């Protein structure tokens, strides 16, 4: 089984990778750090599990490059791509933000979670609020990961 982590923050990436290695040692863990590299990895790897950040840079951040325009809801756009391509993967959003957008109509994580559950019910398992200072995110992520059918089958 392949798990893909799409995340641009090094600390969060390391924590998620360590979590998966501990919870599902047989899983092959791959990483992508932006919208573009995430989309390429999704298409190329066809992972069974995706841990997806919601706010992503357009491109991988390199020395001398800022990663292009930040995509506030880049994770949602990737969910649309997964659905459009009829890919069968279980997706969990892991984010350090509890609100998205700015101005008069910001969206809370709870609102976004409900929206994603309605729009992507076949591929979306739920969201996890990541805070490196607590362990709460681990408990929530463990609950969601344990619902992945391929893990239950011992793949």
For this entry, give a set of tags.
single chain; 155 residues; alpha/beta; Rossmann fold; 5-stranded parallel β-sheet; two-stranded antiparallel sheet; 22% strand
Q: Largest sheet at a glance?
A: 5 strands, parallel
End-to-end separation in angstroms reads 6 Å
What is the CA-atom radius of gyration, in angstroms?
A: 15 Å
Shape: globular
How much of the polypeptide forms β-strand, as a percent range? 15-25%
Query: Roughly what percent helix?
Result: 25-40%
Overall number of domains: 1
- Structure annotation, total helices: 6
SSE layout:
Blueprint: E1 2-6, H1 10-23, E2 28-32, H2 35-45, E3 49-52, E4 56-57, E5 70-71, H3 74-84, E6 90-95, E7 99-100, E8 107-108, H4 109-119, E9 124-129, H5 136-145, H6 149-152
Parallel strand pairs: 1-2, 1-3, 3-6, 6-9
Antiparallel strand pairs: 4-5, 7-8
Helix pairs in contact: 2-3
How would you explain this protein's 3D organization?
- The protein has about 160 residues and is of the alpha/beta class.
- It has one domain: Rossmann fold.
- It is built from 6 helices and 9 strands; from the N terminus they run βαβαβββαβββαβαα.
- The strands form 3 sheets. Strands 2-1-3-6-9 form a 5-stranded parallel sheet, with helices on both faces. The protein has a two-stranded antiparallel sheet with strand order 4-5. A two-stranded antiparallel ribbon has the order 7-8.
- α2 runs parallel beside α3.
- It is globular, with a radius of gyration of 15 Å.
- The N and C termini lie close together (about 5 Å).
- The mean pLDDT is about 90.
């Amino acid at each position: 089984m392949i798990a893909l982590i799409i995340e641009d923050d090094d600390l969060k990436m390391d924590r998620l990778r360590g979590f998966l290695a501990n919870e599902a040692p047989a899983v092959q863990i791959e990483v992508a750090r932006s919208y573009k590299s995430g989309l390429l990895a999704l298409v190329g790897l066809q992972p069974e599990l995706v841990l997806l950040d919601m706010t992503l840079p357009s491109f991988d951040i390199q020395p001398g490059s800022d990663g292009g325009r930040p995509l506030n809801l880049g994770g949602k756009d990737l969910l649309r791509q997964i659905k459009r391509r009829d890919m069968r993967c279980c997706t969990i959003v892991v984010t350090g933000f509890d609100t998205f957008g700015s101005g008069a109509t910001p969206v809370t994580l709870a609102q976004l979670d409900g929206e994603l559950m309605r729009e992507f019910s076949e591929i979306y398992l739920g969201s996890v609020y990541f805070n490196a200072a607590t362990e709460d995110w681990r408990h929530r992520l463990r609950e969601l990961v344990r619902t992945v059918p391929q893990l239950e089958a011992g793949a």
